[in-house]
Task: inverse folding
C-alpha cells in the first residue's frame, strides 16, 4: 500500500495512510484512478488563498505544491507533474506566471485524456507557444524549435523522425503570435494567441510519407499514428510509475492497452497500477524520489502539509525565484532545467543535492535554519504522541519506511535513542525522526 | 595509515566543534597527494556554454561577404567588432578576452565539430560529454579520465563541478565527483549539541546494502564524497584571499570557487579538472542582446579568474577550455535569432597554450544543408589536452586515436 501511495501520489499523512489501509488495495486503486469523482474543494480552497495573478514568479509554485500536498486526488496531481516534466515549459522563459498556471490546469484536467488530445491541446497552450517559439514563427522563415522538440522529446524520440520531418512540420506551426500587455500588477502578461492567415504556410507538406496541406492537429495526428509514439509514451509512463528502462517485452502488454483504448493515458496508468510487475521485487524502491516527492512525503509524514509554502520557501505566499529548498535539491517546479525536463534517476543524487535533502529534514525536524540561512517555522516539529524510541519508531517506521528496516539499521536508531524503552527528550525525538526520514531507503520511491 | 572513513569521521567531528582545519585532514590530504602520482599536477578548467553558442557572431568571419548576406539583421557592424586579423574579429563583448588573446594567452580553435552532427541539444551534449558520436557510451570522458587515476580514494577534490547538477562528462561507475552549487550551503547541518545524530546518519548509509539495489552504493558514496569535499572546501575557502574583484555572476563565482581549490594544495593544486556552466545561449529569437550579455559575462568572468590565478602564481598550471554543444545555423531566422547549427569555435586560455588561431575557419559557401562543415574533430582537442596537459593516454580515455593539434606550448 505504501508503495502504491508513493508511486500514485506523493506519500501519505498518518490519517490518509490509515484511511487507505482500511479501504484495502483494490478500492484504493479504484478511488485513485476515478479521481474526478472525489471532491477536492478543500485543497483547491487552501491553494486559492495564494494569489497566482500577482505576478510573483514563486506564487504559482506554492499554489501548486499546496494542492499536491493537500489533495484528495493524489494521482491527478502525480499525472499533472508527469505532463509538466514531459511537455515542459520554463516560467523564466515564458515570463508570465499566470500563463504557467493555465498550462498547469490544462495538464490537470486532461491528465488521463488520449495522448493525441493532450499534444493537440499543449500545441495551442500560450505558455508552450511562447516557450518553444510557435508564437512569432512565420511562413517566410518557420521556426523549427517546437516541431523538433515535439517529435524528439515529447512524442517519438531521437531516430524516429527525419530532419525533413522537422522542416515540414515547422511549416504547419506558423502564423501565430501572442501579444503581451502590461497587466494590473505592472508586469507584461500574455494575451490570447492571434492567428494571421497571411503568415501561415497553408501549402502542401510531406510528413512521414503523407502529403497534404497539414495544420497543427494533422501533424499531431500523424505523429500519434506512428508505432514509435505508442512505445515512447508507454515507456515514459512505465518508467515513471514502475521502474526505469523496461525491456520491450515488459512494455508490450501496456502498449497493447494503449492501442486498444483509443490511446488513452488513463487506461495505461490504471493497467500499470493493477499489474503484477508494479508489485514485483524489481519495482520496489527502484526509483529515486524527485525533490518534490522527497519533500512533500516528509512534510506529509510530519503532518505539516497545510504549511508547505512556509516550510519550503520560508515565505507563506510569496515564494522565491530560486526555488527555495527545492531549488537546492535540484527541482524548482515550473522551472525545469531545459526543454528535456529533469533527467531524474541517479542524477537527483549528488553531493549538493544530498546535503540539501538532509538539511531540509534538519529544518523540518529541528526547527533549524533553512538551507539559505532563513529561520524555518519553529512550529515545524514532529508530533508529540511518542514517548520512547519504540513508540516513535512504531509511529514513523510504518509510515515512511514500510516497517521494513533491517535489524542493523534499527539498532542504529535504538543506539542513538539510548535504548528502546528509554523516555526520549524532545531533542532526541526530533533527532530520531530526522534519522528515520534521513535513512537511505527514504530517497527511493 | 589513515583510512578514507577515518578521515571522513575525523573531518566531520572536527568541523562540528569548530576547530577549523583538523590535523587529521592535513595528513590525509598529504598522503593522498603523495599517492596521487598519475597525472601532471596541472588543472584543466572546463567552461560549458550551454544552449549552442552562435560561433559566427562570436568569432566573426567578417572578411567573407557571405557572412553579411546570411545575417542581414544580426551581422555585427564592422565598426563595433574587435578585429583580430584579416580573416576574423571578436564580438564587441569579448574585449577583456581579446586583451588576453593579444597577450598570447588565448587560443581559438575554429570549426570544431564531428561527423553527422545532431541538432538536438541533449544528444549533442551527450556526444560532447561522452566523446562518442554514436551515443553508445554510458559514462563521460572525464569520468573515464578519473577512473584511470591511480588513487581514487585520495584527495576528495581531484574533480569538482560547480552547480547543482553533475555534468554527464563526469559520469563514471566507480569515480564520484562532487557537485557544489554554493559554498555557503555545501555542508551537512548538525544538530545543536548532538554530534551523535550525524554519526548515526552515516552508519545508516553504511549498513544499507540491499541485494540488487542500483542505488545503495550510490547513496553511500555520495554521502561520503559530500562530507569529505565539504570539509576540504571549507579549509580551502578559509585560507583564500582573491587578488581581484570578481564580477557578480554565477560563472564568476563558480570560477572563484575553482581558484580557491587550485590554490589550496600548497606545493601543487589538488584539483585536476573543474567544471562550470553558463547557460542561455539558445538564441532562437532576439539574439543580439542576449548573446551580447552572455558573451560579456563569459569574457569578464574568465578575465577576472585569469588575473586571480596569475596573481597567485598558478598561471603555468591552469588551462581553461570552453565548449558548446553546437554552433548555430548560418542563415538567421525571421525572429532576429538563429536555429541550431553544427560546428563552432572553442577557446583555450592559459600560459601553457599556444595563442592564436588553430584549426581552420569553416567555409561559409560550402555548407551542408545550411550548416557549417566542421574542420576539427572535438576529440582531437580532448586528445591533445589529455596527452599534453593532463599527461594521460588519450587512447585509453577516448577509445581510439585522434590527431593531435599544436595547442600546447613547450
Result:
Amino acid at each position: 500500500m505504501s508503495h502504491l501511495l508513493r508511486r500514485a501520489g506523493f506519500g501519505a499523512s498518518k490519517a490518509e495512510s490509515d484511511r487507505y489501509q482500511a479501504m484495502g488495495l483494490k478500492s484504493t486503486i479504484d478511488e485513485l484512478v476515478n479521481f474526478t469523482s472525489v471532491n477536492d474543494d478543500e485543497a483547491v480552497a487552501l491553494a486559492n488563498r495564494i494569489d497566482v495573478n500577482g505576478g510573483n514568479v514563486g506564487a504559482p509554485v506554492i499554489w501548486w505544491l499546496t494542492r499536491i500536498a493537500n489533495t484528495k486526488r493524489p494521482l491527478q496531481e502525480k499525472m499533472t507533474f508527469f505532463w509538466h516534466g514531459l511537455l515542459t515549459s520554463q516560467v523564466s522563459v515564458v515570463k508570465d506566471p499566470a500563463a504557467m498556471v493555465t498550462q498547469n490546469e490544462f495538464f490537470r484536467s486532461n491528465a488521463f485524456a488520449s495522448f493525441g488530445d493532450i499534444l493537440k491541446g499543449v500545441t495551442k497552450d500560450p505558455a508552450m507557444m511562447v516557450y518553444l517559439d510557435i508564437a512569432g514563427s512565420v511562413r517566410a522563415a518557420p521556426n523549427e524549435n517546437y516541431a523538433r522538440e515535439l517529435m524528439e522529446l515529447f512524442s517519438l524520440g531521437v531516430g524516429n523522425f527525419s530532419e525533413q520531418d522537422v522542416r515540414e512540420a515547422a511549416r504547419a506551426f506558423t502564423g501565430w503570435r501572442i501579444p503581451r500587455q502590461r497587466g494590473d500588477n505592472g508586469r507584461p502578461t500574455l494575451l490570447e494567441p492571434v492567428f494571421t492567415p497571411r503568415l501561415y504556410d497553408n501549402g502542401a507538406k510531406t510528413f512521414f510519407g503523407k502529403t497534404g496541406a497539414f495544420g497543427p492537429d494533422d501533424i499531431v495526428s500523424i505523429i500519434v499514428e506512428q508505432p514509435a509514439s505508442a512505445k515512447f509514451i508507454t515507456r515514459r509512463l512505465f518508467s515513471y510509475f514502475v521502474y526505469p528502462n523496461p525491456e520491450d517485452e515488459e512494455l508490450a502488454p501496456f502498449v497493447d492497452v494503449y492501442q486498444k483504448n483509443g490511446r488513452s493515458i488513463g487506461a495505461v496508468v490504471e493497467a500499470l497500477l493493477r499489474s503484477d510487475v508494479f508489485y514485483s521485487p524489481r519495482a520496489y524502491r527502484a526509483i529515486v524520489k524527485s525533490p518534490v516527492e522527497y519533500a512533500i512525503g516528509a512534510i506529509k509524514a510530519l503532518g505539516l502539509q497545510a504549511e508547505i509554502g512556509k516550510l519550503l520557501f520560508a515565505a507563506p505566499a510569496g515564494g522565491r525565484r530560486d526555488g527555495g529548498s527545492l531549488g537546492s535539491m535540484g527541482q524548482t517546479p515550473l522551472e525545469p532545467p531545459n526543454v528535456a525536463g529533469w533527467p531524474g534517476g541517479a542524477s537527483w543524487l549528488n553531493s549538493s543535492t544530498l546535503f540539501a535533502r538532509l538539511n531540509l529534514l534538519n529544518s523540518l525536524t529541528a526547527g533549524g535554519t533553512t538551507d539559505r540561512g532563513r529561520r524555518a517555522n519553529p512550529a515545524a516539529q514532529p508530533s508529540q504522541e511518542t514517548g520512547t524510541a519504540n513508540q516513535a519508531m512504531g509511529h514513523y517506521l510504518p509510515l515512511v519506511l514500510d516497517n521494513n528496516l533491517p535489524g542493523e539499521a534499527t539498532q542504529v536508531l535504538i543506539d542513538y535513542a539510548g535504548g528502546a524503552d528509554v523516555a526520549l527528550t524532545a531533542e532526541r525525538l526530533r533527532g530520531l525522526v530526522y534519522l528515520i526520514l534521513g535513512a537511505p531507503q527514504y530517497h527511493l520511491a | 595509515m589513515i583510512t578514507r572513513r577515518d578521515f571522513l569521521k575525523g573531518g566531520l567531528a572536527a568541523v562540528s566543534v569548530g576547530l577549523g582545519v583538523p590535523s587529521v585532514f592535513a595528513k590525509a590530504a598529504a598522503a593522498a597527494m603523495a599517492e596521487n602520482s598519475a597525472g601532471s599536477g596541472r588543472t584543466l578548467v572546463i567552461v560549458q556554454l550551454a544552449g549552442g553558442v552562435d560561433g559566427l557572431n562570436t568569432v566573426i568571419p567578417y572578411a567573407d561577404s557571405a557572412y553579411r548576406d546570411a545575417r542581414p539583421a544580426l551581422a555585427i557592424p564592422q565598426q563595433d567588432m574587435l578585429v583580430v586579423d584579416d580573416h576574423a574579429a571578436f564580438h564587441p563583448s569579448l574585449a577583456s578576452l581579446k586583451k588576453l588573446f593579444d597577450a598570447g594567452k588565448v587560443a581559438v580553435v575554429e570549426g570544431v565539430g564531428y561527423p553527422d552532427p545532431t541538432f538536438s541539444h541533449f544528444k549533442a551534449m551527450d556526444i560532447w560529454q561522452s566523446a562518442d558520436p554514436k551515443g553508445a557510451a554510458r559514462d563521460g570522458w572525464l569520468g573515464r579520465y578519473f577512473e584511470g587515476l591511480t588513487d581514487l580514494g585520495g584527495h576528495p577534490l581531484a574533480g569538482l563541478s560547480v552547480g547543482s547538477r553533475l555534468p554527464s562528462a563526469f559520469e563514471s561507475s566507480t569515480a564520484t565527483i562532487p557537485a557544489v552549487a554554493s559554498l555557503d550551503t555545501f555542508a551537512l547541518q548538525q544538530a545543536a549539541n548532538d554530534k551523535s545524530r550525524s554519526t548515526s546518519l552515516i552508519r545508516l548509509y553504511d549498513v544499507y546494502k540491499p541485494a540488487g539495489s542500483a542505488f545503495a552504493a550510490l547513496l553511500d558514496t555520495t554521502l561520503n564524497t559530500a562530507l569529505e569535499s565539504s570539509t576540504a572546501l571549507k579549509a580551502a575557502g578559509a585560507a583564500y584571499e582573491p587578488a581581484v574583484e570578481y564580477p557578480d555572476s554565477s560563472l564568476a563565482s563558480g570560477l572563484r570557487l575553482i581558484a580557491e581549490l587550485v590554490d589550496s594544495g600548497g606545493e601543487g593544486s589538488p584539483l585536476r579538472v573543474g567544471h562550470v556552466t553558463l547557460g542561455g545561449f539558445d538564441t532562437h529569437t532576439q539574439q543580439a542582446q542576449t548573446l551580447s550579455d552572455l558573451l560579456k559575462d563569459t569574457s569578464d568572468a574568465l578575465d577576472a579568474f585569469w588575473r586571480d590565478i596569475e596573481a597567485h602564481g598558478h598561471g603555468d598550471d591552469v588551462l581553461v577550455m570552453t565548449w558548446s554543444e553546437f554552433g548555430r545555423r548560418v542563415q538567421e531566422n525571421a525572429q532576429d535569432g538563429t536555429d541550431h547549427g553544427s560546428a563552432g569555435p572553442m577557446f583555450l586560455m592559459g600560459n601553457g597554450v599556444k595563442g592564436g588561431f588553430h584549426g581552420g575557419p569553416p567555409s561559409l559557401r560550402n555548407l551542408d544543408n545550411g550548416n557549417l562543415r566542421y574542420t576539427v574533430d572535438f576529440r582531437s582537442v580532448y586528445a591533445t589536452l589529455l596527452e599534453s596537459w593532463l599527461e594521460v593516454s588519450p587512447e585509453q580515455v577516448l577509445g581510439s586515436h585522434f590527431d593531435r593539434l599544436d595547442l600546447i606550448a613547450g
Notes: Chain A touches chain B through 66 residues (CB under 8 Å). Chain A has three domains: 2-283, 300-366, 389-443.
